[in-house]
Amino acid sequence: MEFKFEKQMDLLEKEVILKSVDLDDDIEDYKVYIDEFQSNETFMAISPRCVRCNLCVEQCPVGAISDSTYSKRARILNNCVKCEVCVETCPVSAIYIFEAEAKIEKDDDGIKPLTYSFTEKKIPHRILRLNDITMDRSKCIGCGHCTTYCPTKANKLMSKEFIESMENQEYENYEIGQLYPYINKDLCVGCGSCSNICAQDVYTLDRYLGPIINTKKLIIDDEICVACFLCEDNCPTGAIKLNDYNIPEIAPDVCIRCNKCSTVCPVSALRLEDIDLD
Predict the structure, then answer these.
(1) How would you classify the pairing of strands 216-220 and 270-274?
(2) Is 160 helix (H, G, I), strand (E, B) or coil?
(3) What are phi and psi of 102, to 5 degrees?
(4) 0.85 cut: is pTM over it?
């Protein structure tokens, strides 16, 4: 997914002036000069396809995602460090990461329009597999919330007769005419949407979630490091430490490959590089 749009320079100039002068000033009295410029940023967003499983919330290493509820999807908070763990983890690919660029260029005719571009970054997904899921149907109140966001429609409210025929077992305490949750385990992916949404604690889920896939590597240039300790002080997981020789060292099992240390480094001694996984 990629999209671009432009803003004409005269509109941009007016916006800059309006943000720089008092309300009672006449903007026609002001002129602004805009030179060539380029800025890059990474944005992350959770789409309305969120199934309320809260896997992203559980796996976020810095607590930067708010809990989802039946009526509200999860939300990425301001303390996100762009580690991409949530993108890898989401079972329905509902979390997007975009590489954004804003650019002003010159050509022979002068300054060109301000161009914004957004390109979706493709991220590999961790393995998620259902081991088993059990239900205490005596707790169920029949609200049906658990079935609403099931991504494969594996969870449905069914009759006593249907459940007994499918599970080859009689349930004498089930009432005729009452609906109970039934999960087709051949369709269930183990996302945990039903378990997270259910307020009655009906579900017990056992699943396998594979390891995080490293898509980036952190490069350290010892020669230009000034031992300012900013990387160590700002690392959200404590993965980077300066050794006895004041050289940064990384704990690979703790580092989440976020952009925190490389962003705060005043001399660009640390940088993240994408790993070619093809």
Answers:
(1) antiparallel
(2) helix
(3) -115, 130
(4) no
